[in-house]
Structure to design on (600 residues):
């Protein structure tokens, strides 16, 4: 059943050509398409990559970009382009999984703190504030030095550093949603807290969390590449963008390509995720929409 | 400034410090028995026991933690395994290098970010504003270490103007400062712009214009003063980010600050030194945060932070 929308309330549709050519359209669609490309090439790296990323070719080390190796070869003669495709897997995997874990912990604790309230709720919030002020990368270093680097550890470290943002945001949202009239009404007619959580609080929280998560994914990808670069990320021989830059650094004068391309990959991916986050914020969460 | 506010903030900082010390202590015990790292290969079981007892490792964990905290409070952060020197002393020796790098970067960052941010707000939606926006966003999305390496490549290798790395309060400082400074500038610029946009739309700005105050004075005095709080906030946050960025930048440029020492200690599995470095930077981080909180209240009396 569709109700008749009053004419004035209908969105004004601009002509198709105008909509497709505007700068804002470019800002919205190009990042999304780029990310899709990165995602697909990472997932299907086995089929897309022209070479085995671990295949060394000492006769052709530090070759510049050519038709055989479109992004050149690194100091061990490995194909930079192929390694980059595989490196995208780690970046995306770590970025997304660690943020999902962080979001899970954060939303759970944030809502719990808002709904329970009292001493326990305050204690949770205190813990959140504390972990927001902890120097993240140093703890990551200390942890990596202790338990040794591995894919799981990197994901855990990043999610333990990022959950607090979600907790704080979820709590704030949950508290304000709880005060709205319809939620109060639901309380008054005797809805159980769980029902209120499921029907009112949770759906209203989703948009904010998606926006925050997107922006955090960008930060997580940067952090992952930094940890990799410092040698405390996912250990070799798995190619990651950060490790590729670290390995290329001593030879940068002989082969700019082995450092430049992975760095560009990080930058463009993070930029695209950030732009996507901004778009989502404008779309899903007008409260957030600051001037961009 | 209410005393209660100061005390509350101070307590919070101390609590964070306590949490940090528990984390660091816990990690050091997770890492396995440090005695095996220290003792020579041919040490007998008795020798190992003796070393363990001399380090207090035969005591219960809680007692060990107590020793750890009391020692740390007295400035004893343990000894570096690799260098067999007081870790605290090593860090203090390296600290000035980090301070100088951080201050220069922050200076450069502000010098770039403030004028560009203000001008972007004044000339909103012009090509200048858009270009600034794109550059800032790209800057925020760029890995610091990569940018540093590119700078080395262009300005030290291709055009040999500056040294690739190393230490000195001279041209050695240029590339690391630019690396960290631009990184910091990006965030400050974005916030400056939006703070100024808000301020420029405010009633007092319209009043000032109506009174015939010259436009530069409206911008630089009336608007900027009121936009100062968010700008200060992000600057303070960036001061903390610089500490993090310093770890990376110092590694790239072999700048002998505490970030470099921390990374070297991680590589060398020199755990007491890692521990000390993390605690040390934690303290610096908290002190910066605390000072900033105090500054808010001084700058904006409306903020009191005292709970209703």
């Amino acid at each position: 059943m569709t109700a008749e929308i009053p004419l004035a309330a209908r969105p004004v549709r601009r002509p198709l050509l105008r909509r497709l050519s505007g700068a804002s359209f470019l800002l919205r669609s190009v990042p999304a398409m780029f990310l899709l490309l990165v995602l697909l090439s990472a997932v299907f790296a086995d089929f897309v990559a022209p070479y085995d990323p671990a295949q060394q070719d000492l006769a052709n080390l530090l070759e510049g970009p050519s038709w055989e190796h479109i992004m050149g070869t690194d100091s061990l003669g490995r194909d930079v382009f192929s390694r980059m495709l595989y490196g995208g897997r780690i970046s995306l995997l770590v970025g997304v999984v660690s943020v999902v874990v962080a979001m899970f912990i954060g939303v759970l604790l944030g809502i719990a703190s808002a709904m329970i309230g009292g001493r326990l709720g305050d204690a949770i919030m205190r813990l959140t504030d504390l972990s927001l002020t902890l120097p993240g990368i140093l703890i990551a270093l200390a942890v990596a030095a202790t338990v040794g680097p591995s894919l799981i550890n990197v994901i855990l470290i990043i999610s333990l550093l990022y959950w607090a943002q979600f907790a704080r945001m979820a709590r704030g949202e949950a508290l304000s949603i709880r005060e709205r009239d319809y939620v109060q009404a639901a309380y008054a007619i005797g809805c159980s807290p769980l029902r209120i959580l499921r029907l009112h609080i949770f759906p209203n929280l989703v948009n904010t969390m998606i926006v925050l998560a997107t922006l955090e994914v960008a930060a997580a990808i940067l952090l992952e590449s930094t940890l990799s670069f410092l040698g405390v990320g996912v250990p070799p021989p798995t190619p990651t963008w950060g490790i590729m830059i670290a390995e290329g650094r001593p030879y940068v004068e002989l082969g700019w390509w082995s450092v430049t391309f992975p760095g560009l990959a990080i930058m463009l991916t993070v930029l695209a995720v950030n732009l996507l986050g901004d778009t989502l914020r404008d779309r899903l969460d007008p409260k957030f929409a600051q001037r961009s | 400034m209410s005393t209660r506010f100061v005390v509350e903030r101070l307590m919070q900082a101390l609590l964070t410090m306590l949490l940090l010390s528990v984390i660091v202590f816990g990690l050091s015990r997770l890492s396995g028995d440090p005695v095996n790292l220290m003792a020579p290969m041919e040490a007998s079981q008795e020798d190992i026991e003796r070393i363990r007892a001399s380090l207090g490792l035969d005591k219960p964990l809680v007692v060990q933690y107590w020793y750890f905290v009391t020692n740390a409070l007295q400035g004893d952060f343990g000894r570096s395994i690799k260098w067999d020197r007081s870790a605290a002393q090593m860090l203090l020796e390296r600290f000035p290098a980090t301070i100088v790098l951080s201050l220069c970067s922050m200076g450069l960052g502000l010098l770039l970010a403030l004028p560009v941010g203000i001008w972007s707000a004044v000339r909103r939606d012009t090509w200048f504003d858009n270009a600034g926006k794109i550059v800032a966003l790209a800057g925020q999305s760029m890995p610091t270490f990569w940018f540093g390496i590119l700078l080395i490549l262009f300005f030290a290798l291709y055009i040999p103007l500056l040294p690739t790395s190393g230490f000195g309060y001279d041209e050695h400082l240029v590339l690391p400062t630019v690396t960290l400074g631009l990184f910091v500038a990006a965030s400050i610029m974005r916030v400056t712009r939006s703070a100024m946009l808000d301020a420029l739309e405010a009633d007092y700005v319209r009043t000032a214009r109506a009174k015939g105050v010259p436009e530069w004075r409206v911008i630089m005095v009336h608007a900027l003063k009121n936009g100062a709080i968010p700008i200060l906030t992000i600057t303070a946050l960036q001061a903390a980010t610089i500490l993090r960025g310093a770890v990376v930048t110092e590694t790239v440029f072999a700048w002998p600050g505490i970030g470099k020492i921390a990374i070297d200690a991680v590589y060398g599995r020199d755990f007491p030194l890692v521990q000390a470095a993390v605690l040390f930077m934690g303290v610096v981080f908290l002190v910066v945060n605390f000072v900033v909180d105090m500054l808010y209240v001084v700058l904006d009396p409306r903020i009191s932070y005292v709970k209703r």
Q: What stands out?
A: Chain A touches chain B through 46 residues (CB under 8 Å).
